[in-house]
Amino acid sequence: MNKPLTLNAKFTENFVSAHEFEAMKPFVSAADKLIKERNGLGNDFLGWVNLPVNYDKEEFDRVKKAADKIRKDSDVLVVIGIGGSYLGSRAVIEFCAPVFGTEKEKSPEILFLGNNLSPTHMVEVLNKCKGKRVSVNVISKSGTTTEPALAFRVMKDYLEKEYGEAAKDRIYATTDKARGTLKNLSTETGYETFVIPDDVGGRFSVLTPVGLLPIAVAGLDIDALMAGAQQAMKDFDNDDLDSNDCYRYATLRSIMHRKGKTTEVTVGYEPFIASFCEWIKQLHGESEGKDNKGLFPASMIFSTDLHSLGQYVQQGLRNLFETVLWIKNPKIDMNILSDPKNLDGLNFLSDKTLNEINRNAFMGTVLAHVEGGVPNIVLEMEDASEYSVGYLIYFYEKACALAGYMNGVNPFDQPGVESYKKNMFALLGKPGYEEMKAELEAKLK
Ligand code: PA5
Asked: Please, what's the largest Cα pairwise distance for the chain?
């Protein structure tokens, strides 16, 4: 079987020389040691490292059973969560499931709620639920985050009005094993609950029930997802920079960052990768962007964005590098028709498949961007299967941890996220924030 993912560094060679790469080896080994020996910053949150092997098998079975039940008794699953509590499941579902569903074995529609404060979005989700059989999976590790808590208040009321007492059998809570409002509410009301392990932070939690339940409800194979992650765990459990693609990726981006390439653009050539890019952006952004440093994670989908941001990439500020996620064998390909009149002049493409054309767009773009001063790291994925995506998830998690340690930050906290929350609570008049409210209101005048 081919490796699910291979790194091609050819298009960074004009920017990163062999001796620079060599010089990073001691730093990589030191950061790797911090992960292995569990004595770096934030070492309470290293549960994801062995998770592909060391996960609760009994709970994994319960996830599958709950997913089977939801698939039978629901037309819609509303997944309530924000940040790490929804980005991973949405990323995997969109990556692996057919875009418009299959008619044969129709999966429930998955709607995501509680990841913003938009009344329009909230009401539209409620309207979509009307007349359908609905279940809810509310996900919050802290159990106290405002956006999902508010959305859950709304959905709980909706389900109780529709189903009365039986509403509780349609609510699944994924949260801390003991703490938080959501845990207390679930115990009191009798919801089926799933646990987010203490030592796994939100953005590293996609392979826990946080991601697994919605992914299984979408009809995807969570055994294959875990198996792919297991393979990656094995492949990347060494600090050999000549063979470990995960560490090679972290090292290349670290070198480029130090040379002024302060923005990493993750690029996909398939629209179904867009949500995976959002997951990557959260993973890198929250893990590395602190203490006034860190690469800025951005993303683009080509060829779509070549007709908008492509101009900037080619000729704008030269602080960018790209990491391309190329899928060698996409789930679907098609032949281009030959037209007897050839009025559109496209018959030169008619012996090719659409994916071959996409590949040539990719090659042409890489060459142009490199020429324009934008190095490209290429991550070639074998396919878009659950196995490969599980592998990719672990690849990114480990690279992110290594990069954080190499840059001297705690990759597992997110202290900056609190600032907006405090201001919002004060402005909304939450008890205990009276003094702050007056200060902020004075600033807004
Ligand atoms: O990675 C993280 O820890 C965060 O993005 C959280 O996932 C996000 O803030 C949601 O938190 P919670 O699951 O506690 O509601």
From this structure: 77
Of 174, 195, 220, at which residue does a domain stop? 220
Q: What's the pLDDT at 418?
A: 85
CATH number, residue 233: 3.40.50.10490
Q: What is the pLDDT of residue 144?
A: 87
Report which protein residue has its CA nearest ligand 1's atom 3: 202
Q: What are the strands, taking DSSP E only, across 209-314?
A: 263-268, 296-301
pLDDT of residue 97: 86
Domain co-membership, 96 together with 10: no
Q: Report, as ranges of residue numbers, the positions in the chain whose pLDDT lies below 70.
A: 99-105
The closest-lying atom of ligand 1 relative to the alpha carbon of residue 203 is 1
In percent, the amount of the chain with pLDDT more than 70 equals 98
Q: Say if CB 241 and CB 24 are below 8 A apart.
A: yes
Q: Kindly report the protein residue whose alpha carbon is nearest to atom 15 of ligand 1.
A: 140
Claim to verify: residue 103 and residue 209 sit in the same structural domain: yes
Q: What are the b/e assignments for 305-333, b being 16+ CB within 10 Å? A: bbeebbeebeeeeeebbbbbbbbeebeee
Q: Two tokens at 84?
A: 């790490």
- φ, ψ dihedrals at 204, nearest 5°: -105, 15
Q: Is 148 exposed, middle or buried (0-12, 13-18, 19+ CB in 10 A)?
A: buried
- Give yes or no: residues 96 and 199 share one domain: yes
CA 437 centroid distance within chain? 35
Beta bridge partners of 335: 353
Cα-to-centroid distance, 61 and ligand 1 (Å): 25
Same domain, 68 and 214: yes
134 and 199 share a domain? yes
Residues 146 and 268 in one domain: no
pLDDT at 105: 65
Nearest protein CA to atom 9 of ligand 1, as residue: 83
Cα–Cα separations (whole angstroms), residue 236 to 21, 219, 342, 390, 406: 18, 29, 51, 13, 17
Instruction: Give CA 199 to chain center in angstroms.
Output: 19
What pLDDT was estimated at residue 143? 87
Range of the domain at 193: 51-220
- Ligand 1 is surrounded, with C-beta below 6 A, by 82-85, 140-142, 145, 148, 201-203, 286, 414, 417
CA of 82 to the centre of ligand 1 (A): 6
**Among 82, 147, 417, residue to substitute to test ligand 1 (most atoms within 8 Å of Cβ):** 82
Q: How many domains is the chain built from?
A: 2
pLDDT of residue 101: 59
Ligand 1 center to 297 CA (angstroms): 18
Active centre residues (catalytic): 286, 307, 421
Q: Does the residue 343 lie in any domain?
A: yes
